[in-house]
Write a structure and sequence with these properties.
single chain; alpha+beta; two-stranded antiparallel sheet; 12 strands; 31% strand
């Protein structure tokens, strides 16, 4: 794994869709981002995760003290994250009555709970953990929309569950989209595009971006010219 950024305290990588962030259960789930990184950077430690099917930016600490400090940045919400997604339908139309701020962001709030009978699926439930996501539409097509998302909280599957809860699941989602929407794309259309935070030791502002070329029109993934 080649980092897009490295210094003596932290590493930033772009994880591909389909790769686990950390090892799973069983020998067939040991290949993951953290193991690939630790094979090269022996001091690398996990700070946060992305779902296996989600691609995008992920930060790893170098050493225990860096891990403690970066984890604290996440806990105190000093880390800004922005995702791109392609969702079914046009949420700008169905959610038109939901107030938007001056930048066009709308809020989804719904407590998220693990459905033990169907795990790893999560659901909106009063007994779940309070969760908040922001979203805004970038491009609307006939059958899908390209949107930006910002998670205010960091629950498992949060963005996927919240968009499903308002009737707009993500294309290619094997857990939260019906079969006909899952089949539209070869992967989950969710990507962690931007992440920013103060450096854990110098407090200098850091911002990283890994843009994707997606569209609200089929085939949704836009191939760049060589």
């Amino acid at each position: 794994m080649t980092p897009i950024y490295e210094d003596e305290h932290l590493l930033v990588f772009e994880k591909p869709s389909g790769l686990l962030s950390v090892p799973g259960r069983g020998p067939e789930k040991q290949d993951c981002l953290s193991k690939r990184v630790q094979d090269i950077y022996t001091d690398a430690l996990v700070v946060h995760r992305l779902d296996q099917d989600t691609s995008g930016l992920i930060v790893m600490a170098r050493g225990i003290e860096a891990q403690r400090r970066i984890s604290r940045l996440f806990e105190t919400r000093q880390v800004s994250k922005r995702y791109m997604a392609v969702v079914a339908g046009n949420p700008s139309q169905t959610q038109a009555e939901v107030p938007a701020n001056e930048e066009g962001w709308r809020t989804i709030e719904g407590n998220i709970l693990l459905d033990w009978e169907r795990r790893p699926i999560h659901i909106i439930h009063p007994d779940g953990k309070p969760s908040r996501s922001l979203w805004r539409c970038v491009q609307a097509g006939q059958e899908a929309s390209l949107i930006e998302l910002e998670p205010f909280t960091g629950r498992t599957h949060q963005l996927r569950v919240h968009m499903q809860s308002i009737g707009h699941p993500m294309l290619g989602d094997s857990l939260y989209a019906p079969p006909e929407l899952k089949a539209l794309t070869p992967r989950l259309m969710l990507h962690a595009q931007d992440i920013g935070f103060p450096h854990p030791f110098t407090q200098a502002p850091l911002m990283f971006s890994a843009p994707v070329h997606w569209s609200a029109q089929a085939p949704y993934v836009v191939m760049e010219s060589p």
